[in-house]
Amino acid sequence: MSWWDTPTGNHLLTFLVAMVPVLELRGAIPFGVARGLGIWQAIAAAVAGNLLPVPFIILFIRQIFTWLRSWNGRFDALVTSLEARAESKRATVERYAFWGLVILVAVPLPGTGAWTGALVAAMMDMRLKRAFPAIALGVAIAAVIVSVITYGASIVF
Fold first, then answer.
1. Which residues contact 89 (CB under 8 A, 6 or more apart)?
2. Measured between alpha carbons, how far is 102 from 8 in angstroms, rounded to an integer?
3. Can you list the positions of beta strands (E) in 61-150?
4. How far apart are CA 105 and CA 113, in angstroms?
5. In this predicted model, what pLDDT tens digit does every residue of 93-109 receive, in sequence order?
6. Is the pLDDT of residue 1 over 70?
7. 12: which residues sit within 8 A by CB, 6+ positions away?
């Protein structure tokens, strides 16, 4: 048995899966439960892992995009695509302010989540102290939705 198969390893793996942009919390909760964690342990590890990159994205993504473009021109298309994706979500967030960002993050569908919410917040020049609470609330709501859809209300409540 390797260290990764221990409870600590399973917590860490779930935490790391939640940090992956496409998988995020939606993939991490089922992953953690499949690895043997209890639903609440999986939720805690997934929420923590999903939220860890958020401040860094909000604070540094513009500088990272600038650096990627200057470092290698091939990244320009990727950066432009990510900026366009954020811009397409901007109207919703601007219209509903705090709650628009919460909803963007909370709805567990492709193209939504903490990474997208943080990217939109960064592109809108939102301050971390304003954006992070909305993203954190959205992640918490998404955790409940994903858990109920995947495991049923009786397990979560």
1. 104, 111, 116, 120
2. 31
3. none
4. 4
5. 888 889 999 999 999 88
6. no
7. 45
Number of domains comprising the chain: 1
Q: What is the pLDDT of residue 43?
A: 95
Buried b (16+ CB within 10 A) or exposed e, 51-66: bebbeebbeebeeebe
Decide if pLDDT at 28 tops 90: yes
What is the full DSSP assignment across 20-68? Answer: STTTHHHHHHHHHHHTT--HHHHHHHHHHHHHTHHHHHHHHHHHHHHHH
Length of the chain: 157
Record the pTM: 0.87
Mean pLDDT of 102-126: 91
Contacts of 29 (CB under 8 A, 6+ apart): 14, 39, 42, 43, 46, 143, 146, 147, 150
User: Which of residues 8 and 4 earns the better pLDDT score?
Assistant: 8
Residue pair 34/134 in contact by the 8 Å Cβ criterion = no
Range of the domain at 132: 3-156
